[in-house]
Structure formats: C-alpha cells, structure tokens
Design goal:
Helices cover about 45% and strands about 15% of the residues. The protein contains seven helices and five strands; from the N terminus they run ααβαβααβαββα. It has a three-stranded parallel sheet with strand order 2-1-3, covered by helices on one side. The protein has a two-stranded antiparallel sheet with strand order 4-5. It is globular and about 40 Å long.
Length: about 200
C-alpha cells in the first residue's frame, strides 16, 4: 500500500494489502530456500507483517529496529505531487529538512549504522525488511551505486559480507508474481473454471 498520501502516523500503521500478503509469503519461501537465519525489520506495520512471515518460514529470531523505518517526509498528510517534490529536493540536497520531516542525511546515517550492526553480528544469512526510498539512498551512498539505479517496490537486494567487506551481489530481485502477471493468471484460471 503506497504511503505517499498519508500522514506519518497512518503510514506507520498501514497494513499489507492482500497482494502484499501474497508477496510476503512468496518472499518468505525465497528466504527459507536461501537459508536466511535472522530477520531485521522496520517498526512500520507492513514491514513487521512481512518480517513476521519470513521469520515464521525461517524459524529464526526477528529484531525490530526503528533505524530501518521509512523516511519521514512530513507529519501532515501529503498529496503525491508534494511527496514526490520533497523526495526530489532531498536527493538534490540531503541536508534539506522538510517541515515536520527529517533530513535524508540523518535517516541514511541511521540506516547505515543499523546495517553496520547487522554486518558485525554473527549470522549466516540475515534479511532486513525496510523501505525503498531510504534503502535506495543508503545503498547509493555506501556502495557508490549509479544515480540512475532505482530499487523496484517490494524487491530484494542481496549483499555479501566477506572478511568485513560488504558488496552488492544483486538488486531488484523479485521472487514473486508481479501484480499484472498475478491478475492475468487469476483471470485465466477463472476462465478455465467458469462453467460454459
């Protein structure tokens, strides 16, 4: 569920949509196949619901950390155009603080400190459930990704830590049906099952 047109309190409590729940279940199966043993999550409800599905599948511990929370753009309700403009300005000037929000620099600093903590912990494979705009900005800074690099909504980024060095193995991995594909599949199944 997009949160750009909600106030921050509503955004933090927005649940997963029915499609989001299907994505979370597919993601949980993907993480189990890839031997994830520990899950970290933003404290936003939809992130916690996704992390909960993954934790149940991998049977490992789940840690919530507000440093993985979505970027605060404002405390009041924003329309989509205003939210987009605030994000554009923050990308141009990471120190810009929108009224009622936080600077992108501060949010990225928090995210990267939390990522450092995860990297130092002794895990085999850890999963972090966070939010696209913040994660994209943090990964761009840490790994000097091309400014044209964008993370697809609901995608997986795979990092590898070897001897204290971390690098990006892959991003925009989508281990689930895209909504359009899911809708086409559901329509095809209905046509097959509907009585003639």
């Amino acid at each position: 569920m997009p949160t750009h047109d909600q106030d921050q309190a509503s955004a933090s409590q927005a649940p997963l949509s029915p499609y989001g729940r299907k994505q979370a279940q597919a993601l949980a199966r993907y993480m189990r196949r890839h031997q994830v043993d520990t899950v970290y999550s933003s404290v936003y409800r939809r992130a916690r619901e996704t992390a909960g599905a993954i934790r149940e599948a991998v049977r490992g511990p789940l840690f919530e950390d507000s440093r993985f929370n979505e970027q605060v753009l404002a405390r009041e309700r924003l329309d989509q155009a205003t939210a987009k403009e605030i994000k554009r300005r923050m990308l141009e000037d990471p120190d810009h603080v929108p009224p009622g929000g936080t600077s992108l620099r501060d949010s990225v600093d928090d995210f990267l400190r939390a990522l450092d903590d995860v990297e130092r912990a002794s895990h085999g494979h850890a999963c972090i459930v966070s939010h696209g705009f913040l994660m994209e900005a943090a990964l761009r800074r840490r790994f000097k990704l091309d400014p044209g690099t964008h993370l697809a909504e609901g995608s997986v980024t795979i990092l590898r830590v070897v001897s204290g060095e971390t690098d990006v193995l892959a991003y925009n991995v989508q281990p689930f049906f895209r909504l359009r594909v899911w809708n086409r599949l559901a329509t095809s199944v209905r046509r097959i099952l509907e009585p003639k």
